[in-house]
Amino acid sequence: MILMPCSMQKKMTISIRRHDKVVSEFSSRLAGYSDQEIAKFFNFSMWFSECYANGYELEGPIRLVLDNSIIQSFKHRDTDRKRGLHALAYIAFCRFVTEWSDRPTVLALSPAAIYEHVGRRSLVIEEAHATLLELQSLFAETKLPVATLGFSSITSLLDILRDIEADDDYLTQYVRGLDNASWKTDLRAPVGIKIPLGIAYDAIPDDLPMRYFDPWYVQFVLSGRVEQHIIEQSRHDPSAMPISSGDMTKDLADLNEFSRKGLLKGLGDIDMLQICDVQRQYQQNLGYVLLGQTLDCGLSTVLSDRHRYIETASFWGGDPFGSEGSGNAMKSNPFADQDRRAERIRPLRAEFFEALSEACMAAKAESSKLSPRN
Asked: What pLDDT is stored for residue 9 in this prediction?
C-alpha cells in the first residue's frame, strides 16, 4: 500500500469537493435548457475563464470591470431567457474564480457603466445610493465582492456622472459632425500613397475637451471611424486605392454607432478600453490587474487586440558581444514571470473545464428525460 503525502491528499480532497459542487449546482440549474443553450452556456463560461487566465499572467489582485452588457444580463435574467443564460454563465465563471483561483478578485463598477445602467443621465444623492445598493444585490449570487472604481463616495460619483454627461453631449455632436463631413481624399503621394489611418489620426485633435474620458483613447477610437469614412469615399483613383490598417480599426469604428433615438452608443466601450488596456497596464506595472468583462463581441475583440506585452531595450553603449551585452539580452525571456503564472493557472482551468463539462452532460441527460419523445 502506497501512502500519499498529507499535502497531496488535502489537494485532492479540495479538488474533488469543488468539482462536485460545480457539477451539483449547474447540472440542476441547466435542466430544462436545450442542448444548444447548454452549449452556449458552456462556451461563455469557458470564454470568461480564458480571459481571466490571460489576465492572471499579470501580477497583483484582479478587478473584473463590468460592462453594461453584463449588468443588463443580471438585471433582466428573470424575464429574458437569453440574458438569464448569460448571467448563469457568468455565475459559473465566478465559481471558477472563487473555487480555483488563488488571486484576490473583485467585481468592479466604473462610473461610465453606472451612467449607462441608469439610462445615461446624472443622478441625485438618493438615486445614486439606491443604484449602488441595487447593483450590489444584482451580483450577490456571484459570491465575489463588488467594489467601486474611480470614485470613493456618493458625492464624487455624482460629480463624475455630470462630467460623463457633458462628454456624452459633446461627443454626440462631434461624431455626428465627423459622419456628415466629406472625407474624399487624394491619396497620391510623392512616393507611394498616403495611409488613411494617418490622415484620420491627424484629423482628430489630441486635446479634445474631455472631462471624464481620456482624450488619447477617444482619439484612438474615433480615428478608426474616420479611417473607414476615408476608405469608403476615396476609391476614385485606381492608382491610389486606400489601404486599410486592419481589422482592429474596423472594430474600433463599430464601437460608436448611433441608436435609433440618435444617441451615440459605445461610451462604455471607450471607458472599458481606457481602463482595461492590458498593453498600458503592462507598461505601467500597476501592481493590480483590470480586466474588462463584456458580452459585446466587438469590444471583446478590441480588448483582446490590446492584450499585448511590449518590451523595449536599449542597445546603446557597452560591448555588444560581452557577457552583459545585447546578445545575452536577446536570449533572455522578458516574459518569464508571465509564463510562470500562465503555467500555474492552466491546470486549474482544466479542472474547471472537466467539472463544467460534467455538469452540462448531466443537464443534457436530465433535459432529454423531460422532453416528450416523438
From this structure: 62
